[in-house]
Amino acid sequence: MPTLYEWAGGMSAFEALTTAFYREVLKDDLVGPLFRGMDPGHPKYVAMWLAEVFGGPETYSAERDGYRHMVRQHLGRAITEPQRRRWVNLLMDAADKVGLPADPEFRAAFASYIEWGTRIAHTNSQPDAHPPLEAPVPHWGWGVAPPYRP
């Protein structure tokens, strides 16, 4: 059975996703301010993170220090619930735009992680948050609905 990473189209699919996504994020009045002045490599780093989460190479862990680095990127940012939701919506729009698989099984698994991950980021970003700084990178799979192959 292919991983979600493989089903999505590999690294090039995740890089296309994050490039298209952050192009829109930077223009957005609600969530854009969170990313003003971001490192030009940020879309690539997020693609690496997503690739690893969905069963691809562990490049984010090897080159960016894994979960420890990711969680620190959200500390103290005070992400609001409307910003979190906009981020999710813009990412789902980008997934459509770049042609990530639209089958229900893939999109359910993809959306499940995005919803879970953004809720973690939202919680960890609050001023009074004290999240654990050491944890494994989550690895997301198909859940209960593997891909249908006729």
How would you explain this protein's 3D organization?
- It is a single chain.
- With 150 residues, the chain is an all-alpha fold.
- The protein has a single domain, classed as Orthogonal Bundle (Globin-like).
- 56% of the residues lie in helices and 0% in strands.
- It has seven helices and no strands.
- It has helices at 4-8, 11-25, 42-53, 59-64, 66-72, 81-98, 104-124.
- The mean pLDDT is 93.
How would you name the CATH homologous superfamily? Globins
Largest sheet: none
Could you tell me the radius of gyration in angstroms?
15 Å
Overall morphology: globular
Going by CATH, the architecture would be: Orthogonal Bundle
What is the count of helical runs? Answer: 7
How are the elements arranged and paired?
Layout: H1 4-8, H2 11-25, H3 42-53, H4 59-64, H5 66-72, H6 81-98, H7 104-124
Helix pairs in contact: 2-3, 2-6, 6-7
Question: TL;DR?
Answer:
The protein has seven helices and no strands.
Jot down its keywords:
150 residues, mainly alpha, Globin-like, 7 helices, globular
